[in-house]
Amino acid sequence: MINLGTKIKSLRKEKNISQEVLANHLGLTAQAVSKWEQGVTLPDVELIPAIASYFGVSTDELFDFNLQEVNKQVIAICDEAYKFRFSDTPRSRQILRDGLKRFPGNEIILNNLLYTLEFCEEEQRKEFVEVGKNLIETSKDDATRFDALRMLASCYSYMGNDELVKETLDKLPEIYFTKLELQACMLKGYDRYRAASIQKNLSAESLVSMLICLYRHYRDNNEPEKAKVQLNIALKIIDAFKDDFCDRNFFKCTLYEGLQDAVKRVEERVDKLNTTTG
User: pLDDT of 35-91, one tens digit each?
Assistant: First the structure.
């Protein structure tokens, strides 16, 4: 708002009108307009839409607010923080916190910050929950809001608060298709290839994850044979991707390579079940 008077003066000069003409239009004195342009006072908030409308600009333009430039700076901050998200998480977190000092409440930075906060660490859990709730309540972007809901539910699950987990997940819509699936089926050329490549891996990872969830269900209900079937199917699915290749534009490694740690854990569970039922 410091530059508001200068902006009004610039627009007035462009329109080639006097301070008195503008003042008369707004029902004020020329002296009031003069004080704005000198930076002595600022227009009342109620006058902002009328001033913007008179000059044919948006209120953002009136305040010299360049949203595109702000977004560019925000993305640069998040990209810099991402470089250290896994190798030096505290540094990544600090970059984002510094970014919030420049752009308070920016949801893009807040969303990135959420990924650097460890809810398993008690001192960070409170901030994690606060940031998550903030995004859920204020973000107008569905993807950001849904991501925050997912992560907040994970936090509540870690805390063992099943009631809050259910309450949080109930806020998510039930969707039986993804944007990527539709793009793969309806688009052509590179757009189809990109969508299908990414969705293929996501679907496979999701299927393996669901099989492990079923394994836990059967294990907890004392049905070891059924539990073993789920794990063996998961191993077969992962093994089916052994000869697949990786497009480095989308992934750092193949699905098969990325799930090798999961394979070890699944095999250990199978061995344990064999010992139990043997």
Answer: 998 888 888 888 988 898 888 888 888 887 666 778 899 999 999 999 999 999 999
pTM: 0.68
Residue 99 near residue 115, CB atoms below 8 Å: no
Domain edges within the chain: 4-62, 67-169, 179-277
For 23, 138, 163, the CA distances from 73, given in Å and listed in that order, are 37, 21, 39
Contact between 78 and 112 (Cβ < 8 Å): yes
pLDDT tens-digit series, residues 95-133? 999 999 888 788 999 999 999 999 999 999 999 999 999
User: Which fold is adopted by the domain 4-62?
Assistant: 434 Repressor (Amino-terminal Domain) (1.10.260)
Determine whether domain 67-169 maps to CATH 1.25.40.10: yes
Q: What is the pLDDT of the chain when averaged over all its residues? A: 91
Do 4-62 and 67-169 show the same overall fold? no
Dist. CA 38–CA 111, nearest whole Å: 40
Read off the pLDDT of residues 129-154 as tens digits, 9 standing for 90 and up. 999 999 999 888 999 999 999 999 99
How far is CA 27 from its chain centroid?
A: 46
What residues contact residue 230 under an 8 Å CB cut-off, 6+ apart?
211, 212, 214, 215, 218
Distance, C-alpha 83 to centroid of its chain: 17
Question: Rounded to an integer, what distance in angstroms lies between the CA atom of residue 34 and that of residue 19?
Answer: 7
Interior angle at CA 204, CA 201 and CA 208, nearest 5: 140
